């Protein structure tokens, strides 16, 4: 991975050679710093304003791709007429699309049982936050201080979910200090983006379009892998972390600087070549 701001000329070249931009970004840890509690990850007004400008500009097609529920992410971002791919793509909503996976709907009953059993077993542990996101359940342990509690959480999760995992009734994944209990669907961020590229984006976002993807966690690394060498992929975080993105930036603050730069550059290009 290369540090994005050391290679900004190459990136500017990509902006110049492509007339349109599909800008897809993760939310937590990418647009906002990771917070102790997910409820505290509020989008800064500066970042929101850049995203609003992009959403109103015909050069851009903007999408937020997140593990959060649709309801939550729409409330946090609060920008109309953009694409929201929530719960790792299980719920999609945007211009001309409103979708939730039927397989995921079927799995809700199992998820609800697991949620209740996890709640029973873990609610006495200080710092555990069990989040029912409708189609998925997140078990956050960022605030759990004792190592033996963290171990107990992992063991409890394994024993409760094992029968479901064994018969492929649910799917487990991990993120930053969080376990995700997901329905057994093939949808993830990477497959969702591939589907959107083939079936969804408007025709004028076909040729001469640059896809930019920004993300900071394991689910985003799957996207980088799927898009490898084809597009502009940017990892947010420590460059020593395993990631197949082309570039990295250190923090959501640097993401803000990049987004401002991107918007300014595309305007510059538009001014040079009026349509
Ligand atoms: Mg993230």
In short:
The chain is α/β, with parallel strands linked by helices.
Can you characterise this structure?
- This protein has 275 residues and is an alpha/beta fold.
- The chain has two domains: 2-101 and 187-272, 3-Layer(aba) Sandwich (Rossmann fold), CATH 3.40.50.1000; 104-182, Alpha-Beta Plaits, CATH 3.30.70.
- 41% of the residues lie in helices and 21% in strands.
- It contains nine helices and 13 strands.
- A nine-stranded mixed β-sheet has the order 1-13-12-11-2-3-4-5-6, with helices on both faces. Strands 7-8-10-9 form a four-stranded antiparallel β-sheet, with helices on one face.
- A hairpin with a 4-residue loop joins β4 (83-86) and β5.
- α5 runs antiparallel to α6 and α7 (189-199) crosses α8.
- The two termini are 35 Å apart.
- The mean pLDDT is 93.
- It binds magnesium ion.
- Magnesium ion binds next to loops.
């Amino acid at each position: 991975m290369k540090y994005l701001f050391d290679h900004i000329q190459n990136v500017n070249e990509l902006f110049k050679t492509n007339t349109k931009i599909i800008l897809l970004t993760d939310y937590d840890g990418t647009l906002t710093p990771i917070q102790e509690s997910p409820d505290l990850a509020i989008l800064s007004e500066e970042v929101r304003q850049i995203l609003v400008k992009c959403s109103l500009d015909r050069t851009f097609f903007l999408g937020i791709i997140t593990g959060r529920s649709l309801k939550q992410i729409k409330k946090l971002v609060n920008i109309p007429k953009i694409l929201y791919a929530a719960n790792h793509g299980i719920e999609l909503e945007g211009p001309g699309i409103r979708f939730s996976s039927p397989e995921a709907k079927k799995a809700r009953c199992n998820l609800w049982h697991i949620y209740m059993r996890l709640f029973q077993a873990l609610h006495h542990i200080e710092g555990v936050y069990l989040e029912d996101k409708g189609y998925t359940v997140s078990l956050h342990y960022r605030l759990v201080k004792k190592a033996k509690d963290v171990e107990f959480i992992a063991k409890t999760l394994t024993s409760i979910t094992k029968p479901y995992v064994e018969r492929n009734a649910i799917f487990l994944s991990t993120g930053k200090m969080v376990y995700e209990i997901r329905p057994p669907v093939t949808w993830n961020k990477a497959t969702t983006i591939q589907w959107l590229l083939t079936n969804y984006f408007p025709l004028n976002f076909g040729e001469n379009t640059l896809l930019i993807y920004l993300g900071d966690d394991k689910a985003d690394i799957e996207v980088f892998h799927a898009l490898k060498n084809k597009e502009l992929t940017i990892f947010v975080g420590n460059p020593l972390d395993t990631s197949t993105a082309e570039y990295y930036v250190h923090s959501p603050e640097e993401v803000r600087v990049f987004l401002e730069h991107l918007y300014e550059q595309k305007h510059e290009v538009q001014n040079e070549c009026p349509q």
